[in-house]
Amino acid sequence: MMDDQEKGSDLYVCEEGTSAVMAAQGEVKSQEEDLSPDIKDWSKHQVREWVLKLNDVEDRVAEILFQQDINGRSLLLLETTDLNHMGVTFGPAKLVIHARDEAVKLKKEEPTSSTNPRKPYPFCRYHDTYRYVEGSILDVIESGASDFIEPCHEYKGFTNTTDETRMSKFTAEVIRFAAACMNSRTNGTIHFGIGDKPNFVHGEVLGVVVKDKESYANDLKSAIDGYFEHKHKQAAQKCIRPPRFVGVLNKNTTSSDKCVIEVDIVPDSTICQENIYHTFSVDMKKAKKKAKGKETAQTETQPLKQFFVRDGGSSRDLLAPTTFAKPMVEYSQFVDSVAQLAQRRKQAEEKHLSVIKSSTQGSRLSQMITGGTLCLDKSHFERYVIVTNRSDAFQFDSLGFLVELNPTAVLDFDPESAKRGLQYHFEQQSAVSVHLPAKYKITEAVEDIANKLKLTRNTSWIFCNGGIEDEVPSDVDQWLMEKGASVRDVISFLCRKDVLPNKRFLVIFLFLSTVSERMDPLVETFSTFLQELKGTEQILCIFDNENAFNSWRDLINARCGKDISHRCIYELNFAEVSGTILSLFSKNRRSSRFLPCHGRGQVLFEKKVERSLNTLEVLCVNQCEGGNEDKISIEENFYKGGKVSWWNFYFSEQPGSTPFIKRDKFDFIMNTVIPDLCTLRKACVLFNLMHVAGCGGTTLAMHILWALRDRFRCAVLRDSSADFSEVADQVVKLLMYKYEETVPRVPVLLMIDDFDDKEKVFDLQQFIEKECEKKNIQSNSAQVVLLNCMMSESPEHTEAEDTVFIGNNLSDKEQKLFEEKLVEIEKTHENAQKTFYGFMIMKKNFLPEYVQGVACKTLKSFNIHQKEGQLLAVLVLLHVYCKGASLSVSLCEEFLGLQPKPFCGTIKVEEGFGKFSTLIASCSVEGKVVFKAVKIIHSSIARHCLQELTTTHNVSKADLADLLLTTNNLYESTQGKDKLLQDVHHILVKRYHSVEEDSQFSPLIQHITAETPGLEEMVLKNASKRFEKDAVVFQVLARYYYLKKRDFSEAKFWAKRARDLSKDNSYIADTSAQVIKHELKNAIANYKEDLIGCDDLKMFLKMAQSAMDAFKETQSLAKKESLQRLQIKTDNCPFNTSGCLGEVQVGVLVIDMLAKTPIFSSDHVRHDIMSEVLSGKVKLEDVEKRDQRRGKHRPYYIILRQFEDLLYNLKCEMKMNIDFLDNFFVNLGSRFGMKDSREQVAQNELFKCFGVYAKLFCKTDSAALLKNRTMQAMLKLHQARQYLEMQKADTYFGILSFLSNDIATEKMEKIARQYGCVWESGHMTVKERINFLYLNVVLSRVKLASPHIQPYQKLIHFLCQVLHEQYRLSDSLPLHFIAVLLLWPQPYLPNPEYRNLGRYISQMRTSYHSEMKEVYNGKRPMIHFFLGKKQGYDRLVPLRAIKRCIMSNQEQFSSLWENGKIWKEKKVEELLCRVTGEVKDNFILADTCIPNLKFDVSPVFRSELSGRAYGSKVSFFIGFSMKGPVALDVK
Fold first, then answer.
1. How many whole angstroms separate alpha carbon 1217 and alpha carbon 1200?
2. CB neighbours of 992 closer than 8 A, spacing ≥ 6?
C-alpha cells in the first residue's frame, strides 16, 4: 500500500455531505494504489487499473482483459498473439507486453534493503518478546486468503498523519480490513508502521511513536460499535483482537521509542457461522451525536453501506459504485458462497486443532533435556549451557526452570540483559559471574582460565553483544565482524573435553525473541556449536510458538543444510516448558532448604546465597528429605569403597534400616571434644581427626557433621587448594547469614579434608580469624570450628588436646556392629562379600591376608598390554603414591573407547574396566573444575595390587611409571587433565622430610631405585619430556645427577635448564649452588694424596668461589621473595635459609682444603696461622716472609693470593651467616608452634659446621707466638672472648637460646665468669654490655642463687647507663627488648626510666621491622618471657616454665597454646600476672602499677578484640617478644 497521504482511506473520515462522491473516487484510486509489488499477486481488477494507466493504450483494452479474467499470473504468461486472439490489435498488444516486461525488469533491478527479510510478529500472540528492527523488511507480502488459518497481511506506513487525524485513520483502516477478513473467513493482520512504495521498500519497518497505547484500544472498541451493524457488534468485538504494540529496535538492537501497531482478525467459525458483515462509511455513533446537536435531524447525505472482501493484497468494497455493467452480480455471487466459505473455515480450524493435539512435545522435551533418564536428578547431562536473546519482563515468571537447572554458562545476546533483562532477573535468585567473551580466549592453562571464571561453581553469564563494561552493542550486519570471533572462542572453550564433560552437557537455545534474519548472531552461534559438537545430539532448541520455530528451522536449513526439527520444542509455551522441566526434578531438589539458628530454630537458606558460597558444600537441617535417589547404587558405591555421601546417613535413618555404624570415638568427639572447643575465646578453633588411610576417618568426620547439622551450620570445604581468603569470606557469610547484629550465633562447623600439610590448615585458620576480625565478630566463644580430617603417615599417632586418632584396628564393639550391618546389606545386595571390598576390609579388621587374597584373585588374568589393565595399573600407582589420586570419567571413556550417547543406555565407566571393576569406585573431584572421576576403592587394595603386579606379573614400578609418563592418550584434552598432571608431578617430586632422615627424592623414585637400580634415571628423563617446561622436574634431575650419579656436568646442565625457566626462584638457584658445592666436596673427599697439589688447589678454590657467589645469589633471591610475600599477604612460606647455610658449608670445605696444603698443615702453629689469615688479621705476604720453606711453597702463595678476597673474608662471612641463622631460629618460631623438620635438619647441620668453625677460630693454642708475651691481660681478654664465641654467648640470641637447649648450669656460670673477665678488662663494648644484661637474666632463670648474677637493682642501674650511651643501630633491637623486659613497672621499685618505656617499645617495634622484615614472613616472633606475679628476676617467666606446668610433648603443648586452653591450667594462672587494660582500636592500653602510666600492647590473636567496644575493659597476660609486648588470653 502507498503512503496514507495519498490513500483512499480518507473517505472514512470525511463529512457526510461529500462521502458518497469521494467513496466512488477513492475506490478507483485505492484499487490502483494497492498494487502488490509482485505482478503475480495482482487481481483482475488491479490488472485493469494498470492497463488504464498505460500511455497510448485505449480503455477498451483494459475492459477486454477484465472480461477475459486476466489476473497477474496470467498476465505474465501472455504473448502478443494471445492478445490478438482476444481482439486487441497488434499495436496496443505490443505496448502492453512491453510495459509488462519493463515492470518485471524494474522489479529485478530494484535495490534491496541492507538488512535481511524478517518474519512478522507471531499471529494472535501478545506475550512474545519479538521486536522489529528499524529498516528491516518483512518477508511476507500483502495478500488475500490462502488456507483461512494462515493470516493475510496489509501494511500501512502511518507516517504522514496529524494528531487530529491519526486515530480516525487507524480505526477506519482496521474496520475496513477486519470486515474484509471476516467476510472472507480468513485470519489476518493489519500493520501500522510498515512502509510501502513509492516512498519506501515494500514491507519496510518504519515504526511509529505511540504516546497513549490505551487510547488506541479504547477508540478501536468504540469504532467497532459505530461502524458495524448493531446485530454484529458483539461478533466483531470477538473477531477483532485488541491492538498489539510491537517494539522497534534501532539497527544496533537497542531500544527505541517506536513501535508497529498490529491488529489481528480471527473470524472463528463458531462466532461468524454463515453471517455476512456490512459496515457503514461513517461512525454511526458519532453521526447520531452530531445530528442531535443540529436544529434538524436530517443529514445532508445518508451513510453508505459497504461490503469488504479480501481481493489479493487489498480489501475491496463489492457495493462500491463502478462503471461496469451489473455491479451487484459479484456481490450476490459472494453472498451465495458464504455458506461454503464458512464450512471450509470450520474444516480448516478442525485440521489445525488436530495437529496441535497430536503433539508429543512435552514427552520429547523430557527425553531430550535428561538424555533419556526422565529425571534431572540423575540426568545423562551433567552440565547445561543456555544460549538466549532479547527477553521481556512478562516472560520471567515462566522461566523458573532456569534457576533450578543452574546452567554452567549463559550466552546472552541481549545487550540490555543486565539492566532489565534475563540476567538481571536471574541474578536476583542465583549466583552469577558476569563476563565478556574476551575472557575465554586461551592465554594460559585451560583449567586455570576455568578456575578464574569459576566456570563450574557459578553460572557464567557471557554478554555476547555488549551491554557491560562499556562494550557497545553491534548491529546485526556488523556483529559477525566485530564480535563473532570472540564468541567463537567462548564456544570452542566450552566444548573442550578438558572443560565440560565430553558428551555430557546439553546446549539449550532458548528463543525469547524470534530470529528471522540469516545474519542474526544466534545463527552463527548455532553453526559454531554444530561444528564443535559434531552434530545436534547435544543441542536443544526451545520456542514458545511455531512461527519462531519455522523461521529458525528455515534459517538453519539454509545456513547449515540441517533439518533440526527433531531437536526443537515449539508447541509448548514457556509456562508449559517450565512446568515440564521442573517436574523432572525430585521434590528434594525443588524444596526449600533450611539452616539452624539460635534456640533450635531454622531459617530459609536462599538458593542465591547457597550458590554464592561456592567453595563450601553446606549441609542443611533437612538435607535429603523428599529425595528419590537410587538407594541401591548409592549404597553399592559406598560399600565398594567410594566416599560416603549424605544419602548414606539419610538411608540409615529410614524405617527398617539399622543405624549408621558409630565408631568408638564418635561419642567422645560429640560429647567432649567439640563442646570443649566451643567454650574457647578464639574466633576459629581447630580440631584434628588424624586417621590411617582407608580406616573410615572421612566417614566419621561426615557422620559428626550429619549428627550436628541442627546445632551447627555445617559445611565441607570443596577444594583444599581453593583461595583461603575467599573461603574465609564465605565461611563468615555462612556464620552471619540472617543474623546481622543478633548474638549468640550458631557456630559454623567446617570439615576440611585431604590437606597434606598442617601449615595449610593453620593458614586457613588464620584467614578465618582475620575475616572475623574484619567483620568485628566478638569471640566470647568459638564462632568457627575447623574439623581437620587428615591422613597420618604412621599407623600410630599420639593424641593431643585437639587431636583424635583413628587407626586400622577395630574394637570388639565396632567389629560386632560391622557384622550386624553385613546381615542387613546381604538382604538387599547380592554377592556383597564378593564385591563390597571397602566394607569387608573393615569388617575383617584390615587383615592383610584378606586384602592380599582380593588383589591376587582379581588380578589373576591381568595383562599389561590390555587397555583396562593399563588404566588399572596407572590408577594403582597413583593411589599408592598420591593421596586422593583419581582419573576423570571423561579420560577413562576416551582411553577405553567408551562413547557416551544419550538415549542409548550409557555404559558405566566402571564396567569398562571389565573384571577389575570391583576395584573401582566413582567419586567427584572438586578442583579448578568440578568433574566426575574414578579411584581405587581402598588404599590397602592399591598397595597390595601394586605388590601383586610386581611379584606375580613382573611389572615393576619403573614399568608403571614409564607407562604413566609415555602414554600420550592419558594427557589428551579431557576433563581432569590438569589434575592428572598435578598428581603425576606430585609422585615424582614430592619429598617427605624428617629429623631422622631427610629424604633426597620422592618415595616413588626411592622405591624404583631400590627395586630396579638405574631405571630411576629413565623415569626422570621421561618426566622431563612430559613436563618439558617444569623447572622443578629439571631441578630433581639435577639433584639426581649430583647426589646419586656424581655426574656434575649433567647436573649443571639440568640445573641451568631449571634456572632458565625460573630465574627468580631461590630454591632453584640453591640447586645450582648445591651442584658446585657437592662437586667441590666430592673432589676433596676423593683426593688421595696427603697434600693438595697447586693445580688442584687452584681448581678447588675456583669452585669454592663459584659456590660462594651462587649461594649469595640464593640469599638475595630469598630476601626478595620474602618481601614480595609480605606484600601479597596470602603467601606464608618462610624465608629460604639454604643460601646462608650453603655459604657456611662451603667455608667448612675451604678450611678442610687449606688444612691439606703445606702452608696450613695440621700442627698447632700452622693452625693458628690459618685462623689469622682467614680472619683477615694476617696477610699472606707476611706469612710467606716468615715461612722458612717459602721457596718451595711459592707456587701455593701465588695461587692463594689470587683468592685473597675469599680467604681474608672467610671467617667474617661464616660468622655473619651463622649469626644470621641463629638469630632467625631463636627469635622467630613457627606461627603455630609446630616444629619444622627441615629447619631442625638445617640447625643440626649448622651445629656441625659451627664445630669446625669454633675449632679453628675459637682456640688459640699458640697465640703467644703471634703476640707480645708481656701482654698477658690482652691474651686473657682474647681467650675469654674466644670462649664466649665458642659457646655462642657472644650474641644476645645465643644467650637466649640457653633457655631452650638445657645448657648445663656449670657452663652458664663459666660463661658468666668470662664476661666478668671482659668487664674487669675495662674494654667491654656496648654489644658485650647488652649481652651481659641478657646473661644475668637468663642465668637467673637457670640458677637464681648463682653468685655470678648481679643484684637486680644493680642490673637495672647498669641498664640505664647503657641506655644513655651511644650504640650502633644493630644493637637497638636487643637493647630495647631487654629494657622493656626489665623496666616494666613493678611495685616498690620506682625508676625514672619507667616514663621512657613507651618510647623504648616504639623503638623496639621499629627496629624489629627494620632488621627482620626480610625474614619474618610466615613466622611468629618468639615470646621469650611472660610477666609473672613475683618481684625482681622471679617475675620474668620463661616459656619453658610454662611448658613445665603442662608436662606435655611439643605437639600437645602447641595444641594447647593455639586453642588457648593453656591459660586455663591452674599452675599457669598461679604463675602469671593478669593485667587490665582498655581496648583501643587494634591494641590494648595496658595498666601498670603506676597510676596514669599505660603502655600499648598488641594481642597475639587479634580476633580476641573483635566485637569489643572502644574503651571497654579487658584483662590479659603479657608476653615479651622482639616485636614488643603482647597480650594473651584476653577476657
1. 23
2. 793, 999, 1003
SS3 for 728? helix
Give 262: exposed, middle or buried? Use CB within 10 Å, 0-12, 13-18, 19+.
buried
Tally of CB atoms within 10 A around 1346: 14
Which residues, including other chains, have CB under 8 Å from residue 987's CB and lie 6 or more apart? 877, 878, 881, 882, 1002, 1003, 1004
* Residues β-bridged to residue 464: 466
190 C-beta neighbours (distance < 10 Å), count: 29
Residue written as cell 599452675? 1467
Backbone angles phi, psi at 787, to 5 degrees: -105, 100
Nearest to 196 by CA among 33, 12, 49, 29: 33
- Counting Cβ atoms within 10 Å, is residue 1474 exposed (0-12), middle (13-18) or buried (19+)? middle
Rg (alpha carbons) of the chain, rounded to whole number: 46
Count of residues making up the chain: 1531
| Side-chain-side CA neighbours of residue 1158 (13 Å) | 14
Question: Are 308 and 179 within 8 A, CB to CB?
Answer: yes
Q: Is 652 exposed, middle or buried (0-12, 13-18, 19+ CB in 10 A)?
A: middle
Among 1235, 1231, 1233, residue whose Cα is nearest residue 1454:
1233
Q: What is the pLDDT of residue 31?
A: 39
Q: Which three cell numbers stand for residue 748?
A: 559454623
pLDDT of residue 1165: 58
What is the amino acid identity at position 817? L
Query: Is the pLDDT at 1342 greater than 60, yes or no?
Result: yes
Closest CA to 135 of 209, 205, 208: 205
Secondary structure (3-state) at 1011 = helix
Task: Give the tens place of pLDDT for each residue, 1364-1421.
Answer: 988 899 999 999 999 999 999 988 777 888 888 999 999 999 999 999 988 888 888 9
| Residue 1208: exposure state from Cβ atoms within 10 A (0-12, 13-18, ≥19) | middle
Pick from 1325, 1317, 1314: which is nearest to 1289 by CA?
Answer: 1314
CA distance linking residue 768 with residue 956, whole number of Å: 46
**Highest-scoring range by mean pLDDT, 109-118, 524-533, 1191-1200:** 524-533
Contact 1331, 1324 (CB under 8 A): no
Fill in the amino acid letter for 789.
C
If you ran DSSP here, which 8-state letter would residue 464 be given?
A: B
Q: Which residues partner with 1290 through β-bridges? A: none
3-state secondary structure 1423-1475: EEEEEECCCHHHHEEEHHHHHHHHCCCHHHHHHHHHHCHHHHCHHHHHHECEE
The cell numbers describing 848, all together, are 592383610
Cell of 341: 466459505
Q: In this structure, what C-alpha cell is assigned to residue 386? A: 543456555
Residues contacting 1346, CB < 8 A, separation 6+: 1305, 1308, 1309, 1312, 1339, 1340
Element of type H or E holding 931: strand 930-936
pLDDT tens per residue, range 520-557? 999 999 999 999 999 999 999 999 888 889 999 999 99
Assign 3-class secondary structure to 1091-1103: CCCHHHHHHHHHH
Q: How far apart are CA 1041 and CA 1056, in angstroms?
A: 13
| Strand 188-192 with 152-156, pairing | parallel
510 DSSP assignment: E
- The string over 823-849, giving b where at least 16 C-beta atoms fall within 10 Å of a residue's C-beta and e elsewhere, is eebeeebeebeebbbbbbbbbbebeee
Q: Which amino acid is at 1494?
A: K
β 383-388/505-510 pair status: parallel
**Whole-angstrom distance, CA of residue 1503 vs CA of residue 1491:** 29
Confidence (pLDDT) at 292:
53
Global pTM?
0.75
Residue 1245's H or E segment, with its range, is: helix 1237-1257
- Least confident range from 573-582, 660-669, 1475-1484: namely 573-582
Q: What angle do CA 1454, 1456, 1462 make, to 5 degrees?
A: 125
